[in-house]
Amino acid sequence: MKRAPTESVQAAAGRRRREASTAEILAATRRLLSAGDPMASLTVERILAEAGVSRATFYACFPDKHAVVGRLAQESLAWREEVSSEGLADPTVTREQLETLMRAVVGHWRANRPVLAAIVELAEHDPAMRAAWRSAVEEIASQTASHLRVRWTNSADAPSDIDGVATALTWMFERCAHQLAVDDAGAETVSLALTEILWRTVTWRAPRRAR
Questions:
Q1: Do residues 122 and 68 touch, judged by C-beta distance below 8 A?
Q2: What phi, psi does 43 have (nearest 5°)?
Q3: What is the pLDDT of residues 76-91, one digit of tens each?
Q4: What is the C-alpha radius of gyration for the chain, rounded to an integer number of angstroms?
Q5: How far apart are CA 171 and CA 69, in angstroms?
Q6: Which of 88, 96, 133, 179 has minimal CB crowding within 10 Å?
């Protein structure tokens, strides 16, 4: 059995530099959006100035500004593995645990509201941003499907189309995030409603035929 090639010292150093630069670029873009900079004025030059990185460094990390905002879109949806895996994959999860999870998700949306609102605004009329947003949603739906498969392993009540269920749930969450980006007054109602929907979905049992 062949061993995977080990990373050279130079390659490891280069990877760490790219990771640090990527984090700086994302943080700078988030600051600009949170400060109220309209998406129309968010240029690569503005990001470079805010992040303090060179143009070459930027393009070593991202192909364009849409890729940066697309990455922020994925984070802003807050349906990432570290948030969702424990609750969705665990067949013994309680309603209270799901409610805690939903409050955390909605809280993340509220904390990132300026960024989320800017992304939603741009996605309405910019095809490239719309594609980046859709890609983020699809990736999260794929992660969600993986967690649900773990949950429903060997379960007679597993839905026939887990991918379809995961996709529908993720787009439902996307619409909620979309609404809270423009009006978060109903955040508590949204948290409780999402808990109810998710709880009923993961605890559903097929009707048993009478003998």
A1: no
A2: -100, 165
A3: 765 554 455 567 788 8
A4: 20
A5: 19
A6: 96
Q: Is 28 left (phi over 0), alpha (psi -120 to 50) or beta?
A: alpha
In angstroms, the CA 46 to CA 21 distance is 15
Q: Is the distance from CB of 197 to CB of 172 less than 8 angstroms?
A: yes
Is the Cβ–Cβ distance between 92 and 152 less than 8 Å?
A: no
Name the region of 126 (left: φ>0; alpha: ψ -120 to 50; beta: rest): beta
Give the largest Cα separation in the chain, rounded. Answer: 73
pLDDT per residue as tens digits for the range 90-122: 888 899 988 988 888 888 888 878 788 877 777
The encoded tokens of residue 141 equal 């739906």
Question: How many other C-beta atoms can be found within 10 angstroms of the C-beta atom of residue 133?
Answer: 25
- Give the whole-angstrom CA distance, residue 117 versus residue 73: 10
